[in-house]
Amino acid sequence: MTIGKGTDVALCLHGFGRSAEDFTLFETILEPNQSIIAINLLAHGNSTFPSSRISRNPLSKEEWFYLIEAFVNFLGIEQFHLVGYSMGGRMAMVLAELMPERLKSLILIAPDGLKVNWVYRFVSETKLGRILYRSIIDSPNWILRMVDMLRFLRVLHPKIQRFVHVQLETKSKRQLVYDAWLIHRQLFPRLALLARKIEEHHIPFELIFGTYDRVIPARDGKRLLKHFKQEHRPTLLNLGHRLLHPTTVEHLSETGMWMPSAKP
How would you class 234 by CB atoms within 10 Å of its CB: exposed for 0-12, middle for 13-18, buried for 19 or more? Predict the structure, then answer.
């Protein structure tokens, strides 16, 4: 979807289980010369991926690069700002690694991909994990009871408990977890290379987390920031994981990090 009519473009990538429409929130701070192009990630909205490839031949980094390159070339966009939230943050980091020369700025909002969760690795990369998860698609009660027991034993934070219940509450959501995890399982950034590309190309960069986010906590940001030669500090907002929020919009507007006009 496109918001605005300006030639200065922000390409925006949403989070897991969400949609491109989430970025309508930023319409309030668009200047006349600016526009937002928000796309639905694969398996989300009206974006599809061949079902025959999900288990055996997932999306590769090269395919992701060529898809976006062809897309922006078709639209006649030479350079663009890149904004990624949660899962979209992981996809944005891969793009920044592969095509830094085309970025005007990079904003990562609670990005996935700073570390690989062992559950994700087990389900997406092992045959046993896939078989086990496919059984959960039809019969999720046992895994939900296990999550509740871990919460009762205080092993699991209540926000993580709620997050799991929300993600697995319907069969369509459980299928989306399986499809999205497997389709994108090869798309993880190389953090040291990403930091070097950002610095070499002088890309204005901001990393934003929610103070109360238990899904992707701010401490994960150290895994990326330690690779920069110059010191970078993450921005902490008084929010949880739902960071596509008016507070974030206000912060980016006030600090000038929303679609900055030029690289320093």
Answer: middle
Spatial CB neighbours of 74, under 8 Å, sequence gap ≥ 6:
none
Of 222, 207, 188, nearest to 98 by C-alpha is: 188
Which 8-state DSSP code applies to residue 242?
-
- 10-residue stretch averages of pLDDT, the chain, 264 residues long: 95 96 96 96 92 92 97 97 98 98 98 84 80 80 79 76 79 88 94 97 97 94 96 95 96 95 60
Residue type, 253: S
| Side-chain-facing half-sphere of 249: CA atoms under 13 Å | 13
> Do you know the residue count of the chain?
264
Q: Tell me how far apart the alpha carbons of residues 174 and 141 are, in angstroms, rounded to a whole number.
A: 12
The C-alpha atoms of residue 10 and residue 94 are separated, in whole angstroms, by 16
Q: Which neighbouring-strand residues pair with 108?
A: 84, 207
Architecture of the domain defined by 2-115+188-255? 3-Layer(aba) Sandwich (3.40)
Amino acid at 250: E
pTM: 0.89
Rounded-to-integer distance, Cα 135 and Cα 114, Å: 29
Cα separation, 198 vs 14, in Å, equals 21
CA–chain centroid gap for 192, Å, is: 18
Each domain of the chain, given as residue ranges in start order, spans 2-115+188-255, 118-183
